[in-house]
């Protein structure tokens, strides 16, 4: 008898403890910070003194979740069902919209791999990687890739952000006998009911104060919750997320039960108010409105006057010769918008002929990134350089050239539009140690790219094109780090078989062939500059570095000294660790051969391409061969093949000495 009584008492204690441990029905008429039954994750929080559950704060790309801390367990004899009723609100933070929120049922509280934005902090592009989820979403963004129907809908999601069923937000009014549309992002409280029994899930909406509609908004009859969560234990809660724009996602009250019959009512009178951003700009009187309107009209008048003044003052310049290049012309307005008003945030760099900005131009299908160069306009010379690029690049088509897309002219501004090279110029990777070191195989590929581009300019283009400014800073790198030759502001064109008409000595110190001051530019002077460029890329050094000792000051001379010494490979960039000795030696020797002081001894760019590809054997020459590595005026006396008049020779020798030795007398 005593034993039976003790067993009965133990059974009662067990049942009472079990009922305490397992809550199957609960209701929150507002949320108390001291109530530990609500577990918060991410940016979710309960607002102090407001008793409101907020899922995300006003921060971009955030996720916040709140769920009932204890799982809901179903006995083997119980059907897996539930009914819930909650009151929520979605409130504007700014003019731009954001992302909504979702009520969810899951097998776990671990949402590893979930993402914000349209995935509600529950899913990712592949679905729900770590947690099996049934969710009812209140979505305020139309996203194409998840097949949203509009930007104001309710959907049922199963392990994926793509809804099984969805419908525009609305409710059935018994009083009016019709369906009435609702706006989720109104800032007003919204009642939501979710009932699941058997395999049927019903979702209903209504404004605060209305009864539960007699007809559900959504109904799905093919949902097996036990299969979805793969068990008879579930967690329930809410989740929200933000993207580049944000809204405030609030839950004001929540009731949940295993069955519709035992669902407790939310006491609407006890619910907290929806927090709204304070509006400090409300007008307090009609007079204030009138004064503000007058001020706005006054400011508008000033702006219109300034706009008309600027439009007349900076009107675009058009001349008859430009008719040939009509399709290449961009409006200044489009370039101004593309570069965000030539913002310093879009500034890419400054060259010898102006500043370069990054821009984004709209196209029929997608946006196109471009580089916009403002050519320095110094009278007639600036215009000549501007026209030179247009004329040169209009007919040039080669994969290793930076394509010119168009141009624009204004009274005081000349602008060139070319394809944007996302990896910038080559010299940044050679001399800026904050950037990663380019491996040898990549440098070698870039050298061959530029060799092909120059061979095309010299032999394959409609006219012979002399670039006249070949150097690492004028070699740009596309998204795949392919080399592209750009900046044709100093280029010259002439018909095949004719001689260039200019004798102006332009270029960059260290890359200029000695004879350029006497005989003017030619394909041979481009070859000389390319030879220096080969050495520059391989050695990771500039052609002339006055701060170094005399033995290392001039790159060409130093490479020859390395060749005379223990090994030519001593000249290579010390940052290179994995390279082909044969390729490096071949490139260095081709560089010295191209930089020969004897113009006739230099190879053509066609031959250079073959040398670099290993398809043509290099001629026999040594560091002490005539014209190789000679930098002083006496070098000319050792070059019997170069015929100059006395005055020309003296002048050329002086220029060579003064440029390369830094002695400009």
UniProtKB/TrEMBL annotation:
This is non-specific serine/threonine protein kinase. Residues 342-621 form the Protein kinase domain. It is found in: Membrane. It comes from Brassica carinata. It is an enzyme of class 2 (transferase). Its EC number is 2.7.11.1. GO terms for cellular component: membrane. In the N-terminal section; belongs to the leguminous lectin family. In the C-terminal section; belongs to the protein kinase superfamily. Ser/Thr protein kinase family. Gene3D superfamilies: 2.60.120.200, Phosphorylase Kinase, domain 1, Transferase(Phosphotransferase) domain 1. It catalyses: L-threonyl-[protein] + ATP = O-phospho-L-threonyl-[protein] + ADP + H(+); L-seryl-[protein] + ATP = O-phospho-L-seryl-[protein] + ADP + H(+). It is a single-pass type I membrane protein. Residues 1-21 form the signal peptide. GO terms for molecular function: ATP binding; carbohydrate binding; protein serine/threonine kinase activity. The keyword ATP-binding applies. Keywords: ATP-binding, Kinase, Lectin, Membrane, Nucleotide-binding, Receptor, Serine/threonine-protein kinase, Signal, Transferase, Transmembrane, Transmembrane helix. The keyword Kinase applies. ATP binds at residue 374. The chain crosses the membrane at residues 286-309. InterPro entries: ConA-like_dom_sf (IPR013320), Kinase-like_dom_sf (IPR011009), L-type_Lectin-RKs (IPR050528), Legume_lectin_dom (IPR001220), Prot_kinase_dom (IPR000719), Protein_kinase_ATP_BS (IPR017441), Ser-Thr/Tyr_kinase_cat_dom (IPR001245), Ser/Thr_kinase_AS (IPR008271).
